Amino acid sequence: VQLQASGGGLVQAGGSLTLSCAASGRAVRISKMAWFRQAPGQEREFVAGVGRIGDTSYADSVKGRFTISRDNAKNTVDLQMISLKPEDTAVYYCALDITASGGIKLYAGAYEYWGRGTQVTVSS
Q1: Helix, strand, or coil (residue 87)
Q2: Which of 36, 43, 50, 105 is the most buried (most CB within 10 A)?
Q3: Residue 17 and residue 7 in contact, taking contact as beta carbons nearer than 8 Å
Q4: What does the alpha-carbon distance between residue 43 and residue 10 come to, in Å, rounded to a whole number?
Q5: pLDDT by residue (tens digit) across 42-95?
Q6: What number of other Cβ atoms are within 10 A of residue 124's Cβ?
Q7: How far is CA 41 from CA 37, 47, 90, 91, in A?
């Protein structure tokens, strides 16, 4: 399985960005997918996740501002981000959990595959 994230960049506070992650591999369609982020000096944290049937989960800090979606035909997962804040600045990673059991997991250790990350910088 390979994951390729794109769409990061520099945006002013209040602006918007959409991140996209393209996945390859036979396990993708049965997997749960998520976005994590990591700011300098901080631990990697869960941002949003989407299950096989489109169920979603969000960190409290992004609820109402971020929307995660997946296209099983294209094997992609997008993260639409609006009303961005300087504290959203981080490297964003897409991740894939191929385990069949359980729902969307909120901890990084549950995800077996990771993309390289894309930088999102929000200026004040």
Answers
A1: helix
A2: 36
A3: yes
A4: 22
A5: 999 999 999 988 999 999 999 999 999 999 888 899 999 999 999 999 999 999
A6: 9
A7: 12, 17, 10, 12
